[in-house]
Design a protein that fits this description.
single chain, alpha/beta, Aspartate Aminotransferase, domain 2, Aspartate Aminotransferase, domain 1, 7-stranded mixed sheet, 3-stranded antiparallel sheet, 13 helices, 13 strands
């Protein structure tokens, strides 16, 4: 008698995270409903305080989503229409979209080849008199060389915004990513390491003036009398999502530890295989939002994995500087960026993966003969 086929292993699975916390999530929802407060209430205030303590910053400001977190942070540190913001091109459309939302112009810096984050040397060479900020991305859950980047930017009096949408809880030289720059931005999209049941975002900072500006901008630029004194918009984290995020925040370090254990199992199991696993910097403690490998035969690998019940992904297939809406005003040479976008593939990664499922993925990858 034949056994039932194994269920497909997804590249990410927020449903598994929510199923394990269903009772606590429903209790949080009931608490919000009973309180009859839905916007800018006690759950948001408590989550902001708890997240700032987790991160090691003095302030945190909840907003509607991660993209608006970036746009509002840029506005809050003084970026204005026409200003130039330096960033990377291999982290998807939300980055240039946020820069454009702030009225600024994106320009792109090449990445280094080991973990595909911003190359500090390329950054130093790219700064011009028109540059007004640097937006650095902690990609795939691996921190960029943020202390070096901040030092390069500070030499030109440029604020640094950290995009931590894939790096909740990551550390660089023992310090949390998101606590180095003028402000740091988080997305709570459901697939993130800390994911809501819906959308949400947050900006953290150690600068009280930036925090005050953020609170103004996230709600129409209103003062205490609801007079608009700045050009803000509606970008509020709602009470329901904040209540759910408070529950998940308590488990975030443990979830990230499980991600690191899965990554270690992948590394050991894929040694000597046809794919290259991205390096981990000695000073980094990544949180493996994604587990990324490289192969020149990406399409063949992903097709093979699918036949084995493993659903991989690509993050990201196209660099944004090649897309019409996000093209820079002046072309830049980005060889590492373009090479990465042609070869990266993401394997399943989420804390609820069992060792047996990880071993299934490893066996599937090793069974691919390019």
């Amino acid at each position: 008698m034949s056994s039932e086929p194994s269920s497909p292993i997804l590249v990410g699975n927020p449903g598994a995270q929510n199923a394990g916390r269903k009772a606590a999530i429903l209790a949080a929802v009931d608490r919000v409903l009973d309180a009859n407060r839905y916007i800018n209430g006690p759950e948001v205030a408590a989550f902001e305080k708890e997240f700032a303590a987790f991160l090691g910053t003095t302030d945190a400001v909840g907003v509607a989503n991660g993209t608006e977190a970036l746009a509002l942070a840029l506005r809050a540190v003084g970026v204005e229409p026409g200003h130039e913001v330096l960033t990377i091109a291999n982290a998807g459309a939300p980055i240039p979209a946020a820069i454009r939302m702030a009225g600024a112009v994106p320009r792109y810096v090449d990445t280094e080849a080991r973990h595909h984050t911003m190359d500090p040397k390329a950054l130093a060479a790219a700064i011009t008199p028109q540059t007004k900020a640097v937006l650095v991305v902690h990609l795939y859950g691996h921190p960029a060389e943020i202390d070096v980047i901040v030092k390069v930017a500070a030499a030109h009096n440029l604020p640094v915004i950290e995009d931590c949408a894939q790096a909740h809880g990551a550390r660089w030289r023992g310090k949390r990513a998101g606590s180095f720059g003028a402000a740091s931005c988080f997305s709570f999209y459901p697939t993130k390491n800390l994911g809501a049941v819906g959308d949400g975002g947050l900006v953290a900072t150690n600068d009280p003036a930036v925090a005050a500006r953020l609170r103004l901008l996230r709600e129409y630029g209103w003062d205490a009398e609801r007079r608009s004194i700045a050009r803000g918009w509606n970008s509020r984290l709602d009470e329901m999502q904040a209540a759910i995020l408070r529950i998940k925040l308590r488990d975030l370090d443990a979830d990230n530890a499980r991600r690191r254990a899965i990554a270690a199992r992948y590394r050991a199991g894929l040694a000597g295989s046809s794919v290259r696993v991205l390096d981990t910097h000695a000073d980094a403690e990544p949180v493996h939002h994604l587990f990324v490998v490289e192969t020149a035969q990406r399409a063949g690998l992903l097709a093979h994995l699918k036949t084995q019940g493993v659903l991989g992904g690509i993050h990201y297939a196209l660099p944004v500087h090649t897309m019409d809406p996000w093209r820079p005003d002046a072309a830049a040479a980005l060889p590492n960026t373009e090479r990465a976008c042609q070869t990266v593939a993401s394997l399943p990664m989420y804390p609820e993966l069992t060792d047996a499922e990880v071993d299934r993925v490893i066996a599937a990858v090793r069974g691919f003969a390019p």
